[in-house]
Amino acid sequence: YPTWKHTLARRAREAQMKRFCKAQAIQRRLEEIEVTFRDLEHQGIKLEKLLRDEGGSPADQKTQWMNQLLYLVQKKNSLMSEESDLMIAVQELKLEEQQGHLDQKLRCYVNKEESLKTPEEKAAEQEILAQLLEVVNKRNVLIHIQEEKRLSEL
């Protein structure tokens, strides 16, 4: 078992662990966002009730409540944007994982002498190459979506 194969296997495991850790961090953040959404919603409901029920409140108080409500809406929109970014990151991680598996499969076929390959192996190699191309195109679409989102936010 040549050294380069050990190195490739180690690097693949390291990349997989990095993706796993990143996925866990994303999952934790998505859960935090969900909790924050619920808190913002409860605060918003309280403010709406105050605005509707307090007919005799001073104008200053109503303005303050309205400003708080607008702040909550802005915060919620910001969290929704972050959640959208995280969901794109999850998709990207899945595609990276898929690409890594396909790369490993393809290497097995590419490293074999061309004259020793059976027609089935050649067809499998072409199929894996097509799948790899499809994954790369999907990742490219995600990057394009992120870039469009970033430009629209500017």
From TrEMBL:
Its main location: membrane. The keyword Protein biosynthesis does not apply. Transmembrane segments: none annotated. It holds the Pfam family bMERB_dom. Keywords: Membrane, Monooxygenase, Oxidoreductase. PROSITE patterns: BMERB (PS51848). Residues 13-154 form the BMERB domain. It is found in: Membrane. Signal peptide: none annotated. GO terms for molecular function: monooxygenase activity. InterPro entries: bMERB_dom (IPR022735), F-actin_Monoox_Mical (IPR050540). This is MICA1 monooxygenase. It comes from Aegotheles bennettii.
